[in-house]
């Protein structure tokens, strides 16, 4: 089971409190985790990544074991600690402005 931590606005939209705990088939990758999130919480489709291209939204970042993996390939395996559920996969809303 994989833990996914969402930012507060996406937790509210999905109607959940705390981290999501999801079963991910196969190797834990960004794509497989996001596929599982969207399958379990269809209301989140299009909020984290584009519905058509499946590319990450501009102001969304992904972190695994303290490392920003947002620019890593979607199919790159994530650290074993994520796959084992020992560490959460973080989805963070980036902040911009000046």
General description of the model:
The structure is a single chain. The mean pLDDT is 94. The termini are far apart. 22% of the residues lie in helices and 19% in strands. With 98 residues, the chain is α+β, with helices and mostly antiparallel strands. It has one domain: Ubiquitin-like (UB roll) (Roll), CATH 3.10.20.
List strands and helices in order, with pairings.
Blueprint: E1 2-5, H1 8-14, E2 20-22, H2 30-40, E3 60-64, E4 67-68, H3 80-83, E5 89-93
Parallel strand pairs: 1-5
Antiparallel strand pairs: 1-2, 3-4, 3-5
The level of helicity is 10-25%
CA-CA gap between termini: 39 Å
Average residue pLDDT: 94
Shape, per Cα inertia axes = globular
Radius of gyration: 12 Å
* Percent of sequence in beta strands: 15-25%
- Please identify the structural class as seen in this structure: alpha+beta
CATH topology heading: Ubiquitin-like (UB roll)
Task: Report the CATH architecture.
Answer: Roll
| Number of alpha- plus pi-helical segments | 3
Strand order of the largest sheet: 2-1-5-3-4
What is the name of the CATH class?
Alpha Beta
Low-pLDDT ranges: none
Total strands: 5
Number of domains: 1
Q: Look at the structure and name the CATH superfamily.
A: Beta-grasp domain
Order of helices and strands: EHEHEEHE
